[in-house]
Amino acid sequence: MAEPGDPLVEAALRVTVSGLDLAAAERFDRELIAARQEAEEAGSAEPLEFFLHRWRVFIALRRHSDDAGEN
Known about the structure:
mainly alpha, elongated, 85% helix
């Protein structure tokens, strides 16, 4: 699994989110900034880990619902 804060992982997730929902991409950016700030303040990668997990789940659910709608 990639390290929290890995810019390539963040960029890949953002591209994927943007392709699924532009409004969600704006929320992704805001939440990423907040997660970075919280991680820095707490001295812990946990906020970034949670952020990445949450957006991976968002992508999986959105893809699943899109696939289900095609049937």
